[in-house]
């Protein structure tokens, strides 16, 4: 169906057999987010945004990433404030961003079991700065990145798949981390104050429903989701 700007919606499908090598016997697991984006390579002719389809990111992050890309930015990511991504129902894993003085990403530190406390958050008894920016897999990228991604996928098949043929995954955050280490890419971190919603625990469902109800009541969204387009 056409979108409000009268541009066609293109669909791309991720096939487990669409790989630079032989499909390992018994492999049923998809190859990860890197291959998912490569599946759309033929239709990605302009800068684009990558997100997790089952998470809610808010509006501000999309605006910031869009502005960065249309103004000539080559790659960026929305950095969510840690306190806006935590669950009331248990520990979560978050990639805490390290940046240089130009807000360019230098490292994403995967941090497990972050739980809320009375005055902030901690992991295994160590306090965590809740104002830290974290990566929730909202990336702004360009078609040029896809060439590097394709080459990285071929290398992944040569180096990673042989040792773990049934479970190895080609993940965008891991690949971007490797490019950062090799100084082959820079990623601008754009702070967003939006609340990120995911459903890590079944108990999160009701809280997410209530949050969306509140956004509709406050006029952030129409009850008919696309009614204002």
Description:
This protein has five helices and eight strands; from the N terminus they run αβαββββββααβα. It is globular and about 50 Å long. The longest helix has 17 residues. It starts with 32 loop residues before the first helix and ends in a 12-residue tail after the last helix. The protein has 229 residues and is α+β, with helices and mostly antiparallel strands.
Helices, strands, pairings?
Elements: H1 33-38, E1 48-50, H2 60-70, E2 76-81, E3 92-99, E4 105-117, E5 120-123, E6 126-128, E7 133-141, H3 143-159, H4 172-181, E8 188-192, H5 204-217
Parallel strand pairs: 2-8
Antiparallel strand pairs: 1-7, 2-7, 3-4, 3-7, 4-5, 5-6
Distance between the termini: 14 Å
Strand content: 15-25%
CATH homologous superfamily assignment? Spore Coat Polysaccharide Biosynthesis Protein SpsA, Chain A
**Helix fraction by DSSP (H/I, runs of at least 4):** 25-40%
The CATH topology name reads Spore Coat Polysaccharide Biosynthesis Protein SpsA, Chain A
Main pleated sheet: 8 strands, mixed
InterPro entries: Nucleotide-diphossugar_trans (IPR029044)
Protein name: Nucleotidyltransferase
